[in-house]
Amino acid sequence: MTGTAPREGLTALAETLDAAQLHGAPVSQSGAAMTLADAYAVQHLLVGRRTSRGDRISGVKLGFTSRAKAIQMGVDDVIIGSVTERMRVEDGGLLDAAGFIHPRIEPELAYLIGSDLPADADDAALRQAVVGVAPALEIIDSRYLDFRFDLEDVVADNTSAAAYVIGPWTDAATAGDLGNRGVRLEVDGRLCATGSTAAILGHPDRALATALRMSRAHGFELRAGMVLLAGAATAAVPLPHGAHVAASVTGLGSVWMRFGGGAHD
Ligand code: 0L1
Ligand code: MG
Q1: Virtual CA dihedral for 141, 68, 61, 193, nearest 10 degrees?
Q2: Which residues share a beta bridge with 37?
Q3: Distance CA 175, CA 122 (A)
Q4: Which tens digit of pLDDT belongs to each residue from 34-62?
């Protein structure tokens, strides 16, 4: 698919989305006629603005890999985005609420890529390169008013990526079959959502082949040390200020974080 929109328009949209994130001020849907290729071009420009300010890409994320999530947002296609070092929160750490617009949180499974993937790597090579798996939390925060967007809008907005937390890594070689593990999400000790890793593309390991295919199609790299967020196992839930959030995946342990500080304190 080739892009059709003029380059200046794509650059302007990347600037708009970047400013929305920097100032915590949502924007309306662009309304521009964008192809998916245009939308990924905007996303790369947007992430490039972050890295030009000293941030570093630390991984990739897939979105809409579960039916619950796709239905929640009214779309029906898997998308890919980047996560960065400044989006990473330590397990058990505090995520500063300053600058968030309408954050939501979702329990995910993360894979750790242990070696660089050559351009011609196949699915088996990527599986071999995976050295760890972990429970994870992803915080999403659409830069669009009221979380209203179409597929191209959300791709342009780097798939609403805002922050992430990775729990303890388990050696991929000893983790066993991840195909149907129970997933729990608790906010302030209250069970908010339960699900199964099977909700992620039918089996979360399918996220590996999907990430490889989408990386190639849309210009992402998979390098040593990167994480791959495979997607949510449940629908996302609102993340209130002051919340203490924990997620667990059967056999892999749990991950947690606090959300606070910022303008409220
Ligand atoms: O599943 C995902 O991480 C995609 C998030 C993009 C859609 C949203 O903002 O809910
Ligand atoms: Mg997600």
Answers
A1: 70
A2: none
A3: 22
A4: 999 999 999 999 999 999 999 999 999 99
Residue nearest to atom 2 of ligand 1 (CA): 63
Residue 3 confidence (pLDDT) above 70: no
212 contacts 117 by C-beta, under 8 angstroms? yes
pTM value > 0.85: yes
Whole-number Å distance between alpha carbons of 197 and 178: 7
From residue 38, how far is each of 140, 192, 203, 229 by CA, in Å?
A: 22, 37, 30, 23
What's the CA dihedral at 220, 2, 152, 16 to 10 degrees? Answer: 80
Query: CA–CA separation, 109 vs 107, rounded Å?
Result: 7
Whether 231 lines ligand 1, by a CB cut-off of 6 Å, is: yes
Q: Which of 106, 142, 145, 151 to mutate to test the pocket of ligand 1 (most atoms within 8 A of CB)?
A: 142
Does 81 score more than 80 pLDDT? yes
Segments making up each domain of the chain, as ranges: 56-264
Binding site membership of 232 for ligand 1 (Cβ less than 6 Å): yes
Class of domain 56-264: alpha beta
Distance 63 CA to ligand 1 centre (A): 5
Ligand 1 pocket, mutate which of 21, 43, 73 (most atoms under 8 A from CB) = 73
Please, which residues bridge with residue 227 across strands?
Answer: 59, 112
Q: What is the pLDDT of residue 2?
A: 45
171, 124, 180, 240 alpha-carbon torsion, rounded to 10°? 70
